Amino acid sequence: MLQKLSRDGVDVKNEVVFECSKCSNRLLKWMGRCPHCGEWNSVVEKTEPASRVRFRQASGNESALKPLSEISYDTSPRISAGIGEFDVALGGGIVRRSVVLIGGDPGIGKTTLLMQALGSIAASGNMVIYVSGEESSEQIKLRADRLGINSDNFFILIENDLEAISETLEKTKAQVIVVDSVQSISSRSNDSHPGSVSQVRHVASALTDLVKRGTCACFLIGHVTKEGAIAGPKVLEHMVDTVMYFEGERGHPYRILRSVKNRFGSSNELGVFEMCDCGLVEVRNPSELFLSERAKNSSGSVVTAMVEGVRPILAEIQALVTGPTPGQGRRSCLGPDPQRLALIVAVLEKKLSLPLFDQDIFVNVVGGIKATEPSSDLAIASALISSVTDRVIGERTLVFGEIGLAGEIRRVSRVESRLNEAMKLGFNIIIGPKANLDSKTLSSGTRILPITNISEIMTLLFQESKPKAKMSRPGA
Ligand code: TYD
Ligand code: MG
Question: Environment class of residue 448 by beta-carbon count within 10 Å: exposed (0-12), middle (13-18) or buried (19+)?
Fold first, then answer.
């Protein structure tokens, strides 16, 4: 059913839609149960303007043609977040009038990070506002004291209502605003549940609109929960200027702030932090930290050079192969992509005749880093070989390279920065793709061992170590 209404002199088409108030799934007709999320009695009938018209109103863009040369932009300097690693991840500081979405699991440290950043910004003389829909002002004050934040420029607004927040923010001269969290804010004009996709989208759109009309920058915090994955920040990614994820493994103190979209800088920038008693502390030299607890003289361990964004990080990959077990062995990995592990195991079985089918395989990247880059394939394979054969890989050997299905070792990107980081930390044997390393000369004392096929890996890996045991079927 379509009806015409006149608004601002523009004919706007309104349409009736059926939407689940829990997951915001759209339906053609009313149903008692949402086929998407399975919730009963959640489908509601709504009347709303066609999406094309809504977009024009939200962005406030003029539709007149303009030559590129006549368009000017704000050249005022970026605001420093006061935390070096945060600035790096943002691509060089906070851009005015930008909206940054920071997503992450509950308890990972989003509130802590943003409070620390606001504390530094406030200390440098800028007015900041922390809008919380989750915590009381006493809780925030307690945390601020713990983090050593004490500035008269730091303001707190405890509110869940979007209209009330917008009204306050429009009147202030704050430079940076944090909204914690976008799921906890709801609008009176939207009848969906707080935290539903529809509400989250509405809140983010209204706040983005507000920021674009003013001069401040805004950080939106979004939870990624198992349940809320539907209502999580994923739906907002196209609305905001920058999307960052704050990640880390539970039980590990290290946290990585990763930028996955940035309209004002290169994406895939990365900042590394450690969660301490006094809040988050920057880790300026992640490679050193990740390698500091490396077990000496143990099989199944190797170091690889990954590149996160433009930043090289050396990390230890550990593998444990045990068995045999009845039937197919279990594969478990913390860090690497399970699909890539399956591929590497298949190549090792086929090309090196390693008996892995009925073995339980565990692979772990130390420090809770995600080694999803294909360049860590060869290191994962090396750790597996080292565990199966119980032979130790040299402490100062570094391995990197992508493995193809035919067992060929393929070239990787940014090899210079990987090699520089390896040299800085004293690695003296570098095993990597021939295509990358053929023309490379490194300082004397560093040996480069180019590899073209996985079949060569055994001879290259164990040049210095003595075999602890003959290569045999483990457990046999
Ligand atoms: P928090 O910032 O509240 O997480 P989020 O906002 O992402 O839900 O962080 C909560 C965790 O951080 C909590 O488990 C305690 C820990 N933490 C510290 O270890 N040290 C600190 O100084 C602070 C403030 C928190
Ligand atoms: Mg929080």
Answer: middle
Locate 118 and state its tokens.
């606001």
Determine whether the shortest distance from the Cβ of 139 to ligand 1 is under 6 A: no
- Across the chain, what does the average pLDDT equal? 84
CA of 164 to the centre of ligand 1 (A): 28
Give the ligand 1 atom nearest the CA of 279.
Answer: 22
The CATH architecture of the domain made up of 289-462 is 2-Layer Sandwich (3.30)
Instruction: Indicate if ligand 1 lies below 6 Å from the C-beta of 27.
Output: no
Domain ranges of the chain: 2-49, 77-284, 289-462
Distance 221 CA to ligand 2 centre (A): 8
Structure confidence at residue 13 (pLDDT): 60
**Which-ligand-closest: CA of 248?**
1
pLDDT per position as a tens digit, 302-353: 999 998 777 788 999 999 999 888 888 899 998 899 999 999 999 999 999 9
pLDDT of residue 284: 84
- Please say whether the beta carbons of 312 and 306 come within 8 A: yes
CATH topology of domain 77-284: Rossmann fold (3.40.50)
The response to whether residue 148 sits with its C-beta less than 6 Å from ligand 1 reads no
Say if ligand 1 is within 6 A of residue 143 CB. yes
pTM for this predicted structure: 0.74
Residue 15's alpha-carbon distances to 52, 192, 193, 286, 413, in angstroms, are 12, 17, 21, 54, 50
Cα 221 from chain centroid (whole Å): 13
With a 6 Å cutoff on the Cβ, whether 106 touches ligand 1 is yes
d(CA 169, CA 173): 8
